[in-house]
């Protein structure tokens, strides 16, 4: 049990640019019934952190207002109903907030032991992207042999995770990225074809590459900007999976006809507002299906940069400029 009460965290003076973030001293949170308190060593930076900083993605009710959705470190205190975890265990965890701090609360069912051979930095790059990709692409569908899947934003943390997992499960992965360097990185991770969307129309490029066959599943975080093009690229019986709307959330006009005639499915979800039980079920599947792949180095989280917590604004600037390939990590 910790004997002091204060910790450093990243706070916001108000919603806005990276300039609103500053280091603040605050009270260390206390773990409740099924919670664990983690002494944070490393923190993964994610797009939702930027959206929350701007006031576009508020924290759920009763969640910490501090930014940060994934951490890794050592358990220093546990709630009275916690089972299977002990003080001193090293874990990475998905959290509802509070990650940009020296101590963070996590629900016991959203924590995972480090994969074999992993340290805190590598482990902190796992939870948010792997939970998201698994929940949307694998929880209800694990047969990907011979299926074509388009992953937009292939060089992002989500994208690099999706490409590796889909390739491991036998999918033929297509992707989009904003530079030749990023396209090459995606190909090295297992993508079969990568389109630089700043130089080519991805629909025409992929249709040409597939000789008009199109795509079975599209995994998209762009949203409105790509909606009609995504629909036009899907094969009969295809599925569009939406996980964000970085390119807008309102589609002004679209034709419903191909959705019906092509028997298309459009679905989407967010991770943060799922129940603790839903997240625990995802955690359990990751431990069974994905942890062996990580421990054997068959797949791995891709890390672009590691920065101290004090440079959180620099991390956000890198991500907002789309300079990163993979994850950005903060250390305490």
UniProtKB/TrEMBL annotation:
Keywords: NADP, Oxidoreductase. Residues 16-330 form the Enoyl reductase (ER) domain. Signal peptide: none annotated. GO terms for molecular function: NADPH binding; oxidoreductase activity, acting on NAD(P)H. It comes from the Bacteria. NCBIfam families: quinone_pig3. This is Quinone oxidoreductase. It comes from Candidatus Liberibacter americanus str. Sao Paulo. The gene is qor.
